[in-house]
Amino acid sequence: MRHFLDIHRTDPGDLRAILENANAMKTARAGRPKGTPDDDLPLAGRMVALIFEKPSTRTRVSFDMGVRQMGGGTMVLSGAEMQLGHGETIADTARVLSRYVDLIMIRTFGEDILHEMAEHASVPVINGLTDNSHPCQIMADVMTFEEHRGPIAGKRVAWMGDGNNVAQSFLHAAVSFGFDFTFSGPVQLDPPEALVKAAREAGCDVRIERDPERAVSDADLVVTDTWVSMGDAESSRQRRHNLLRPFQVNERLMRAAPDDALVMHCLPAHRGEEITDAVLDGPRSVVFDEAENRLHAQKAVVRWCLGV
Ligand code: CP
Ligand code: NVA
Question: Does residue 134 have a known ligand-binding role?
Fold first, then answer.
């Protein structure tokens, strides 16, 4: 059975095949009304459960639409409204849902929850974000970069700000897709040392650069994300803002980047905090292509999981 739990747990050849399929499906339905089915219906007769223990707009709607376009059915479940949120174990939830549905996507807190779900489910499980990873996002990001600039291998991604879940999945992707990575943020919010070490040992040039302008100076892609993630304590907000303010992606910072450097943000953006309107809405930003590609990339992930 194929779970899609993380970038580094998926064979790089399979990641590539997933992106090729995503591109093919995107091209095949270009210009078509969004609610119409694809020509092929590989998910006909299949049901997918989408479980959210945290809020979501993109993940929720893109998975739901994607599965429907491929002929499948979906049910969106909020963790709080399930017995899961009232003491039923993850393991029992996994066993029960596996009797009803063909695939489970879960957005949750700790990685341990995701892994427990996968261990006890007898259907594929997809990671829709945890406190430590967001692999579906990164698949869309790599797809988007390559649409605009060609192969990402050998390029450099500069991450500005918090070494959070999305940053950590980018580090995994640097190994799988062969790009280099610069992290620029406060030392208190570095990505885990073990992850940096593993990426370096796998041959990635990973730089930790405290000076934001130097960090973007040779970047092909500049990426940022919220300063306070859904898994972070609300009480840490002020401290995080104070630490992260110097790493805001604004026009001044982007003047230090190469002219053709792209800008990404997984969204939702906090305009005026981690990124300014001028950059987010500016010519180098590809954030809405990135959001669209969640749909295409995840359709291919679902097909890969189900082998259809
Ligand atoms: N980027 C992303 O995962 O967005 P949502 O939180 O809206 O799903
Ligand atoms: N780092 C953010 C990503 C949101 C899609 C969070 O976890 O809240």
Answer: yes
For residue 59 and ligand 1, the question of a CB distance below 6 A is answered with yes
Catalytic residue (choose from 68, 115, 172, 294) = 294
The partner residues of 221 in beta bridges, in order of sequence, read: 157, 262
By the 8 A CB rule, do 138 and 169 touch? Answer: yes
In the residue annotation, 294 being an active-site residue is answered as yes
Tens digit of pLDDT at every position of the chain (308 positions): 899 999 999 999 999 999 999 999 999 999 999 999 999 999 999 999 999 999 999 999 999 999 999 999 999 999 999 999 999 999 999 999 999 999 999 999 999 999 999 999 999 999 999 999 999 999 999 999 999 999 999 999 999 999 999 999 999 999 999 999 999 999 999 999 999 999 999 999 999 999 999 999 999 999 999 999 999 999 999 999 999 999 999 999 999 999 999 999 999 999 999 999 999 999 999 999 999 999 999 999 999 999 99
| Residue 69: active-site member | no
230 assigned binding-site residue: yes
Is the preceding peptide bond at 37 cis, omega within 30 degrees of 0? no
Using the structure block, give the residue that is written with the tokens 């489970």: 104
| ipTM computed for the complex | 0.99
Nearby residues of 24 by Cβ (< 8 Å), 6 or more positions away:
none
Indicate whether residue 225 lines ligand 2 (CB < 6 A).
yes
State the DSSP H helix or E strand holding residue 158, giving kind and residue range, or none if neither.
Answer: strand 156-160
Delineate the domains of the chain, giving CATH numbers in brackets.
32-132 (3.40.50.1370), 135-290 (3.40.50.1370)
CB 224 within 8 A of CB 275: yes
Token pair of 26 as six digits:
């995107």
Answer whether 23 contacts ligand 2 (Cβ < 6 A).
Answer: no
Per DSSP, the residues of 35-64 read TSPPSS-TTTT-EEEEEESS--SHHHHHHH
